[in-house]
Amino acid sequence: MKILKKILVALLVVLIVIQFIHPKKNQSTEILATDISKTYAVPKDVETILAKACNDCHSNNTIYPWYNNIQPVAWWLQDHVNEGKEHLNFSDFTSMKVARQYKRLDDCIKEVKEGGMPLDSYTWIHKNAILTDVEKQTLYNWCNAVRDSIKAKYPADSLVIPKKKSEDSE
After folding, report:
1. Confidence at 168, pLDDT banded by 50, 70, 90
2. Residues in domain Haem-binding (predicted)?
């Protein structure tokens, strides 16, 4: 029983100590020149959809919930945000090559259509992030319109991401 008590006390001490170690927050009020809205039209209804269902993980400005102040939850959330931004970051969208932008918009359409985004782990707590059919259609239409504008502006071969050479083919 004494060993169990020591283990529980040690765990409690560790839990208290980690409360003082916080990851850097993903919060920026600056709208970068590379923000998608600086190059492509983002209508108000699309902006609203992105704000409620996408931007917390796919922009440089996360609105953190209260439980982000509890460790190790904050670490998990920050890892989740960082991973989301690796896949798609609307704040840094136009820094990507045009082929990657084109592909990311296609990925966005597919993820929303297939129910992969927003993630269930996000909508479980953020019920307002669950997209209605009308909102999904609005997002599809916008992504397709931006893709069409890219297609009209750039040659077709610039919209294809080159395949990486494998070591076997060298």
Report:
1. low
2. 12-147
Decide if 140 is inside a domain.
Answer: yes
Spatial distance between the Cα atoms of 128 and 27, rounded to a whole number of angstroms: 21
CA 38 to chain centre: 18
Closest CA to 83 of 117, 50, 113: 117
Structural domain that includes position 95: 2-160
Helices (H), 97-160: 98-113, 120-123, 133-153
The structure's pTM equals 0.79
Residue with the two structure tokens 């704000």: 51
- The answer to whether 146 and 43 have CB atoms below 8 angstroms apart is no
Could you give the CA distance from residue 83 to residue 65 in angstroms, rounded to a whole number?
18
